Amino acid sequence: MRKIMIFVIGLTFGIAGGFTVAAGSGIKIEGHDHAEMDHSTMDHSATGHSDAGHAMLHDMPLEIDAASAPTIDIMVTKDLMAGYNLHVVADGFRFAPKSASLAHVAGEGHAHIYVNGVKLARLYSDWYHLDTLPKGDVEIEVSLNSNDHRPLALDGTLITAKKIVTVD
Asked: Helix or strand or coil: residue 67?
């Protein structure tokens, strides 16, 4: 038992010491918030567009011809435990998480989820759990986006689906 206690104490001090040394050296041990990043300083040469132009792509719709335009529908159901489950049904569209931020490929990409008009997350598959939603009538919207983040559009209209959920 004594050996285990000494091991636990050593492990605790070793981890604390490691974090202290890392913090003292200016090393950050954390993730990043994509929404707060300055896209203009990032290298996006792999995507085939300039750094300065990347941030603008998020707001520049990519027109798709009618013959190859995907369709989207969403279902939002109350989860039995907590929150809501979002199911995205996209025909003529394939989620391609490994191609995110790469060049556009027809018929593939990712989706963006919006709650009351505010972007919540990127979506790389057809299911998402919405943990907490504000009380009252809540608009859930999902847009289809190309690999290079441009929202897909048909005749000037973004390819999206919306549902209103009443949260108690």
From this structure: helix
Distances (CA, A) of 93 to 31, 47, 58: 30, 20, 19
Report yes or no: 42 and 58 within 8 Å, Cβ to Cβ.
no
By the 8 A CB rule, do 162 and 144 touch?
A: no
Among 104, 113, 111, 98, which residue's Cα sits nearest to residue 145? Answer: 111
Q: How far apart are the C-alpha atoms of 103 and 49, rounded to whole Å?
A: 9
Residues of the chain with pLDDT under 70: 5, 7-8, 10-58
- Structure tokens given for 94: 């394939």
* CATH number attached to the domain at 39-167: 2.60.40.10
Domain ranges of the chain: 2-31, 39-167
pTM of the model: 0.67
The Cβ-side half-sphere exposure at 91, using a 13 Å CA radius, reads: 3
Helices of type H across 30-134: 51-57
